[in-house]
User: What shape does this take?
Amino acid sequence: MAQESRVKKSLLNARVNLIFYFLTLALSFFSRKIFLDCLGADFVGLTGTLQNLLGFLNLAELGIGSAIGYVLYKPLFDHDETKINEIISVFGYLYRWIGFIILGVGLVLACFLPLIFPDTRFDLGIIIFAYFSFLASSLIGYFANYKQTLLGADQKNYVVTAYFQTATLIKTIIQMASAYYTGSYYLWVIIELVFGIIYSFILNWKINQVYPWLKSEIKQGKMLFKNYPEVMTYTKQLFVHQISSFFQYQTTPFFVYTFVSLQIVAFYGNYTLIVDKLCQLMNTVLGSTSAGIGNLIAEGNNAKIETVFWEITGIRYWIAGIIAFIIYNTLDFFIIEWIGHEYLLPKSILLLLTLKIYIQISTGGIGQFIAGFGLFADVWSSILQIILFVGIAVIGGKFWGLHGIILSSIISIFAIVGIWKPYYLYTKGFKKNVWKYWSVWFKYNILTILSFFISYIILSNINQWFSFTNIFQWLIYSICALIIYSIISFFIYYGCIREFNYIPHRLIKLILR
Assistant: This one.
């Protein structure tokens, strides 16, 4: 029964995430056009810059939310309401302190706004007003919305997604109307702040409905803090892991600019914008199982844990192959239709980007189970990943330009996430020999290459049917690529990898249930 509940909640989370992802994506195209036309590129750039500045302040969160999420898995499985109240109280106490730290740093940073924006055409008043409005919206999460972590750990993140994204959609539509009819900068910012407050009230009302027994108190959290030393231990470890990912993502454009050119930064950004959106989509859908994995591990059924691991691994390899095949065969056509032929990068760059997204998606299940087991102690691996990335990026960028920089990212991810993390998970989590994983890993990658090769030959033969004169033909071609690779790879995996067979069996059970 618990397994059925986990599957249903995971599917519900995935479905809600997927629906709102596409709604938000569709609206973002229209809203950005209206904001640019009615408010101007300078204002859109100003708000984006201010939000990025405040994004750096949010690093102070350190990873406490993830640490608390892990600590909650066991008491949620045991239905220990007393302990849950204690943990959320501790979380509220910690988040309040983080909120005060961000407020303090934010006030200091505000003093430098005239230096950060010296030559802007905007009055300092609108800059300061927008800055403090965004800062207030950010602080609401620390002082009022901290309880939403419980929904995520309890596999009810669909509640947060539904309320937050609905509020975001309504807010964006009202901002579009405001921009179109008034063109007021102040009104646009006020709407942003007001909806942040409204969302906070609605979310907390819903949490009280879902958990009427939840009575967290900040003062109690201060007294109970010493009873949960693991929270700070996990937080420190997660902070290092998060810094590693943040550093690699933020510094790649800098290396491209240093060793190639500013123009190539823009060209490369066009490609990564699309690739990152696809990664976000996959993380949105596949990441919905994370809380379920934590709950499953808390149950302690080792056979069931391993079965689910192979199911998630199989799904991720299958989807990673599909995404990689579509990107490699269709992204160039999309770039031409979107912004023009002159923005194309060499096919070898596209191949490296394809390999990178394949590794990231296919190995994501390892990270989910490591988080489920609470295996965050290997902070040295994240530090080594940064060292590998920087070292190879400097050497590779100097000798091979953009190719070397992308390769540095691939090598560092593969060395740590692809090699070390599976070993770490098997030895510390599953407590089994990792060679079982390597044998299946080898099969998946060889069969992915085979599926890629067969699908590419078939797709090349139907390529002559398309003239690629408009976006509609590109869409039809992409659907053909999707169908061809999906079918071929599915049956190759099914016939050659025993662990992959768990997936269709699970689907049949869900359909017949």
The longest helix spans residues 2-38. The mean pLDDT is 83. The two ends are 12 Å apart (CA to CA).
